[in-house]
Structure formats: C-alpha cells, structure tokens
Design brief:
373 residues, alpha/beta, Rossmann fold, 4 domains, six-stranded mixed β-sheet, three-stranded parallel β-sheet, SAM-dependent_MTases_sf, Methyltransferase type 11 domain-containing protein
Length: 373
Amino acid sequence: MSAGQKVELPRSRSVAGPEAGEIAANLLPEGHGPTAKGFDGGALAESLDTALKTSGPVRLNLGAGATEIEGYEPIDRKNGQEVYPLECDDNSVDIIYASHVLEHFSHTETHKVLAHWMEKLKPGGLLRLAVPDFPWICEHYMDGEAINTMGYVMGGHVDENDRHGALFDREMLIDAMVNAGLERIGSWESEYQDCSALPVSLNLQGYKPATSEKRPTATLAILSAPRFGPVLHMRCGIAGFGPLGIPYEIGQGAYWHQVLSGQIEAALENEAIKFIITCDYDTAFSPDDVMELWRLSNAMEDADAICPLQCKRGTEHVLCGLQDEHGVRQNRIAIAELARPDNPARPYNPRKKPRSGRLQICLLQGRHRSSGE
C-alpha cells in the first residue's frame, strides 16, 4: 500500500483474531464493541473514515458568525466560544483565520491578542488577518464618496459585540505582526464571501517560525574597508558575528562602493546565502542588533533591503536627511515626510503601488533596548 492510498473495507465483512479486541476498543464507536466472534467491518470502516477526517489540519475561523468555510472550525461568541483566549493547546493549530475580528479589541490589547494567537499556531503555522483599511476609508471619505464611514470605523453597532476599538493601516498591522513574532508577512487575496472580500479590507498574513533556532542561518556579513580604520568596529564584528556563526568577509580597495558591489554580486551567486549584512567600517553594533536585523529580514519577506539608522553622536537625530520642495536640507524630518511620493529621496507611499523607478521606503520600528543605546 502506497502513502495516501485509500483503503476500502467491505461493509459486510467480519474481522476476527487476537488483535480484534484492541482494534475495536480504539476505533469502534460505543455500542459496537468486539464480540466473541469478532466485530462488524462496516462499523470499523465508518470509524476509520471519521478518524481520518478529524486527524487532518486544524483550521480555526475566528469570529465566524454565520459564515461557513469548508475545512475550518467556526469560533464565535454567539456559539459560546471566545476568540481570545482560545480554548486550545499552544502549538496545536495549523491555520488561524480572523476576518475583521482584531479591530473589535481595544487598541491597547491588540498586541496581546496577536501574541496569543501566534502561540496557538504550530511551528510554521499560518495566521491570516483582515481588518478595515483606515487610509482607504479616509481617502474615499475625503473624495466625497458614499461609503459606510461610521460602520467601517466604529462598527455596525447591531449588538454589543459589533463595536470597534482599534484602527489599522498597512504599516501599523505589519509592525504589530512582526512584534508578535510572525515572519514572511505579506498580502493575501480573499477567496471567501465575507468582509475580507470588501474593497475596504486590508488583508495580511504571516507565519509562525518553523523552528526555535536562535542563530542566524544562510547569512553572510561583508565589509569594504581601508587598510587602517576604527578599532571599535572590528571589536563589534568579532563579538557580533563570531558567536552567531556568521562569516565576515572583508574586502579592500581604493573605491569603497566598487569593492562592496563586487562582494554583493559574489554573494548573490551563492545559493546557500539568503541574507547579506553590509557593514560600514566605523559602524558600532551589538549581537542584539544583528539578531534584530535578522529577525526583521525573516519577517519582511517582500523587503529587498532593510536599513537600520544610527543616531548622531550626542543627539537623538537620525543620520539621514531629506530636502524640502526648494532643495533645502531639512534639519527635522516628520514621519509623514518619508511617505511623500515627490521628495528627492524618491520614497513612495507603501500603501499604494510603487511608481516606476521609485525607491520603496517603509518605516518599521524595531525592538529598542534603552535610550542612548
């Protein structure tokens, strides 16, 4: 018998033998136990069918309401079940589907809800979320379109459960999912007849890490450096890459960008390397910084590059700059400025499709240790 081959048992066949009692005790429903001569094969076949069906993937549809999705177990308060906390073991669920559920919690506890759902997933399990897209609501409201603004933002208020306590845009939801420990975060298209199929719906999914491995894998660190340089960086490299098992290749040459480009191209040809960490020869960092960068890289599957920004020595100003519409360098940069589609740094609004030739910039908050570090 090959794997996956279906076994058909004759409905009229009786089974007897020394193992009959044990098999029957484990598989047969109550009232169909073994007899002195054996037991009915039809009842065994039915029990086997039931066992096979219940041993498949565990999929939960949170806040299901009246929506039925084949293969998913509906979890809803109206049925006497709570979506938070879930009454199932940790590491026991393959897929959690939550369509327009998260916004019903207070904005002060959505991070706890996401962390709880993530704990229930099996390693490698999938969490699919759908929430109202607040920027979409604002845009269509300001355009004077006839949309259900009150319902989208505050809930339908048809009963005590139909009220919203949180707002989301794409960046906020990604940030929350990353900090819950999810990785490979990206968009998904609805296949169901529920709120996730509405134009207002923001649909994102993420996976629980398939392993508890805490050491970066498939990672290479590279540096283009002069013959002489700051000693502090090399001490950071030894402490930050060595214990984590990350190879550190140092290139030298008269042209910094040329050497670094050559190193990157060589690394890209190596199929065993998934992540490349590029260093500047005066950069100071810790092993925690390396682990945070690796964590974010795993979480942001669609990110081509993630750039951690340092603060200027002695101040809290980040070492990056933009120019205003007159070409004058700005001393202070508001977060909103990084979403402008027309500034000289050429970022675009990550909520919209990228413009041709534009550099995509998305703000993502990491886990800060303490002020000044």
